[in-house]
Amino acid sequence: MTTATIEPRVTVGDGLRQTLTLAWRTIVQVRHNPWELGDYSIQPIMFVLLFTYVFGGAIAGSTGDYLTFALPGIIVMNMLFVTMYVGTGLNTDLTKGVFDRLRSLPIARWAPLAGRILADQVKQAWSIFLLLVVGMILGFRIGTNLAGLLAAVALLLTFALAFSWVSVLVGVLAKDPERVQLFGFTALFPVTFVSNVFVRTDTMPGWLQAWVKLNPVTHLADAARGLMVGGPAADSVVWSLVWAAAIVAVFAPLSVYALKRRV
Amino acid sequence: MTHAIWAEGLVKRFGGTTALAGVDLAVRTGTVLGLLGPNGAGKTTAVRVLATLLQPDAGHATVGGYDVVRQAHQVRQLIGMTGQYASVDETLTGAENLLLIGRLLGVPRAQAKARARELLAQFELTGAAGRAAKTYSGGMRRRLDLAASLVGRPPMLYLDEPTTGLDPRARAELWELIRGMVASGVTVLLTTQYLDEADELADEIVVIDHGRVIATGTPDELKAKAGAQTLAVRPADASHVAVVADVVRELSRGEPEVKGQLVTVPVADPAVLPGVVRRLDDAGVVVTELALRSSSLNEVFLSLTGHAAEEPSEGSES
Ligand SMILES: Nc1ncnc2c1ncn2[C@@H]1O[C@H](COP(=O)(O)OP(=O)(O)O)[C@@H](O)[C@H]1O
Ligand SMILES: [Mg+2]
Fold first, then answer.
1. pTM
2. Which domain holds residue A98?
3. Contact, B11 vs B22, CB < 8 A?
4. Please, what are the domains in chain B?
5. What 3-state DSSP class applies to B234?
6. Does position B177 have pLDDT exceeding 60, yes or no?
7. How does pLDDT run across A217-245, given as a tens digit for each residue?
8. What residue ranges line ligand 1, CB within 6 angstroms?
């Protein structure tokens, strides 16, 4: 037997390295199953095409104009859907016993979750990139500059990171991976639609406007629009970050608690 | 350190269910302990506590001298675990699964790859190394799972029902692999609901039922405790089964088991045989089979718990 020296604890550096290794796992999964990549490529492209050609003419006159208004919001909506993959992946690990195996290894306690969330940020970046490219082909124009665009992407990824905790909670509570996706659709659709993503707030009834003005999706879409297209962005950026912080403050402890209960 | 794994008074409750009601066990270094019990007995819970995956509500346990609660990180460096359900990442290939664990354990990439190749060869998975684990058969998956728990060459190995659900051939192959690991000096904690498996592999057996240890000993000691031998009587006429059961119950003071027309009962003293023959003769019962043989662990289990070991399909709460 080779008896290695027994370490009393795991260092943060080790934990980060383990997180990267676990994130690598998720990337390899995509390489093996490129269809999965299709899942989060086809859906956003469909969104763009549908909304542009179904709503575009009616709401804004021309598809290019409509896209310039709606694409930032479509990116936000798609981003929320993509966060659900964190929960699906986590749920698969939990139900297949992979999570137990990871927890029985001498690695940082937080590495399995961090690895999962980090890997999904790569998927996020990919689908944002894809939406921008498709949008530009169809007539979306960036009205600011590269710095504005990068700031918008950074904000979207930050919010996605925060919102991943909602997905983690759903992933821990759900019985199987399919239910995570189902939740994604039944809960996220109303939240994203009752926002200013597709139509301007002032066209809606007053009681609805109150929620729309509170909805983080509205703030995020406004912020992304301001940073990419132009116009005021500072307020909505701040509100988006406040929302992100609030989501982490509520859902991170809940998720960790639920995870401890489940395993 | 004579005891690689040691536990005292382990209690674990899940809501209203008491999965462990004060379990003691000790595994000597380099030996195999068989934790034997029916479905729902608490085997998986015990293994999960010893693997630091669950915290006990009471009692304590050490692995390699380290406390499973307070020194969990140290314990994790000593153990390899193969769960009841093969816990490999199905989307990764066999080789990638092993590489992943090697990398997580801090082994440099080239070495981790070499170790993966070595294990895949040892477990006869070289041909399937590049295929996603979801395409593997049940037996291959178990072998990969076992290989995964050995990446870090742990001195202690937990095997939770390693052969449940495997066909007899895959089962025999896995037994062979486990024997090989034991020969290399690994201490093994094996859970099983197959009594013959414990008999085959274990140096010592702890029988648990409803979260309690009901017997401990070597396979031979347990057989002696529960009745070294089993008396089997088969009457020629099916209507005589009840009479036979009454006679053997009275003389052996054990509870006979009736399977079709065969009546079996554990006996401590072989001298009951002449008495049984005489009594059956008096009652005019003609027998086609009358034998005294060594007890199987199944029979041991029956006499220890008062109920037969349930089939995995029944009481499927775990
Ligand atoms: N996570 C859990 N939540 C609730 N009950 C559980 C949980 N795990 C096990 N149990 C219960 O504890 C008892 C022992 O289960 P387990 O240790 O899995 O038994 P075994 O592995 O011997 O079949 C069973 O009654 C089971 O239903
Ligand atoms: Mg079990």
1. 0.82
2. 32-262
3. yes
4. 3-224 (3.40.50.300), 229-294 (3.30.70.100)
5. strand
6. yes
7. 889 999 999 999 888 888 999 999 999 99
8. B 14, 17, 19, 37, 39-45, 317-318
